[in-house]
Each structure stands twice: as structure tokens, then as C-alpha cells.
């Protein structure tokens, strides 16, 4: 019984997580234009809502959610991440979202307990 | 799992790239879809190919360690210094160039990971996140939140700026119970 549970529930499922993140970003920012005074609130909201939804999945994981929101200005941005963890149990995924004036990049790292 | 992701990515690219070559009725259908939805999202899940050899290995059964807390805590200040050091040495004189910075982000993240590993803090998993961007008159906000054990897990962060680029480095250390 324990083995059955461990293989099904302790895997990092990328698809579920990307759906959750996409929905979160859509509902928080949606099609609003970039607004300097709201960006603080947007970042916090995206990250906190995603974390809430992720914890509702009930999996034995610690999560790190990072969100980058930037204005579409023609400037370039590069992001890289390097992780020292257990490949069989831990995973990460990144969702890039854009609308006419804003880019939003959300990275989720899940580490098994 | 990553094959599926690669197929999805390939399909997405094909869809976007082939709009111009579709027949006329198909092009019209694409346009109406774009009108109702003016935001696009893409998913990327990139993994180094070498890691897939580990997948067939069965999950390891862990035994109790009877250890309630880490013997040695993660040295945040030392890691702060490492970040300052690495970012300054690699980026002090550089100008922002797309190809150079692409390589630079990957290199810097590997270097930081290696130096933090050298500290040999037992039972800690490390995540290094680097962002290098061009300085133009844009605004940007980077935020992160973590769901973890606040007494054992921690993070370290440093920002570097020169005349044409900026770099943000974050290191997260998570205790493996």
C-alpha cells in the first residue's frame, strides 16, 4: 500500500502545475496593461495564489515559486537555474506568459520531503 | 515526460510558424481566435538529456535518521559573499549582448552551484536562480515565495548592476529531512 502511494503521489507532475500557474496568472493579470503602481500587488498576488493552489494539491513537497513581471520594452532578459537535488523525486517548471504590454515568467521548483 | 513536453513545444512552434502557409479558410479561423484571446502563454520544461538515465531506478526507501534538525545550518553570509564575488568577477566589464549573456547565465549558475556545493553543507538541496537583463528604461519586479520549513530552510540573494546590464542571483537552500 505504501509503495503504491509513494509512486503515484510523490512524483512532480509538470502538467498539473502548469495548468494551475497559467490560471493564476490569467486571473490576476488577465489582459490588464502594465501599470507601475499595481505591479507590486500583482507579483505578490500571483505568487501567493499559486502557492495556495499548490499546497491544496496535498503532495509531500516543499515549493519555491518565483515570478518576474516586466514591461515590454525591447530589452532583453536571460534567466538560468541550476539545481542540486534528487532527480527522481524533485522537479521544476517554468511558465512564460505575455500580453500586449507585459511579460510574466513564473518558475516553480518542487522538492520532495 | 520530457518527450511529451518536447512534442508539445514542437507542435506549438509549428502552429505559430505555419500561419503564413495555411490555406485561406484556415488563416481566417486563426484570426478570429486571436481576437478573443490577446494573451499567449508558453510552457517550458527543459531538462539535460543525461538525467533520463536515472528514471528507471526505483524509488529508494529511506530509513529514519532520528535527527530533528540539521547539525550544521546553511551559512547564509558566506553564500552572500560567494554571490557578490562571482557576479562581480564575471560581469564587471561586460556589456549586454544577447548571445554572450545567454551563455553567461548558464555558466554563472553552474559556477555558483559548484561553489555552494564545495561548502559541503550536509542534507541540503540547493537551487540557484540567475537573471541577467539589459538596462533600458523598463521597470521590472522579481518576487518569490516559498512553502517550506522556515526554521531549517533559507535563501540568499544578491543584485549586481553595471552601466549596461543588471544581474539578480538567488540561492535557495532546502533541508532534506
UniProtKB/TrEMBL annotation, chain A:
InterPro entries in the record: Tctex-1-like, Tctex-1-like_sf
Pfam families: Tctex-1
GO terms of biological process kind: microtubule-based movement
GO CC term, one of those recorded: cytoplasm
One example GO MF annotation: dynein intermediate chain binding
Organism of provenance: Coregonus suidteri
Name listed for the protein in its UniProt record: Dynein light chain Tctex-type 1
Keywords from the UniProt entry: Cytoplasm, Cytoskeleton, Dynein, Microtubule, Motor protein
CDD domains the UniProt entry points to: DLC-like_DYNLT1
UniProt similarity note: Belongs to the dynein light chain Tctex-type family.
Domain of life the protein comes from: Eukaryota
Localization in the cell: Cytoplasm, Cytoskeleton
PANTHER family: DYNEIN LIGHT CHAIN TCTEX-TYPE (PTHR21255:SF4), T-COMPLEX-ASSOCIATED-TESTIS-EXPRESSED 1/ DYNEIN LIGHT CHAIN (PTHR21255)
Automatic annotation (TrEMBL), chain B:
Gene3D superfamilies, sorted: Tctex-1 (3.30.1140.40)
InterPro entries, sorted: Tctex-1-like, Tctex-1-like_sf
Region (Disordered), start-end ranges: 1-39
One GO term describing the cellular component: cytoplasm
GO MF term (any one): dynein intermediate chain binding
An individual GO BP term: microtubule-based movement
Domain of life: Eukaryota
Family: Belongs to the dynein light chain Tctex-type family.
PANTHER family from the UniProt entry: DYNEIN LIGHT CHAIN TCTEX-TYPE 5 (PTHR21255:SF64), T-COMPLEX-ASSOCIATED-TESTIS-EXPRESSED 1/ DYNEIN LIGHT CHAIN (PTHR21255)
Name recorded for this polypeptide: Tctex1 domain-containing protein 1
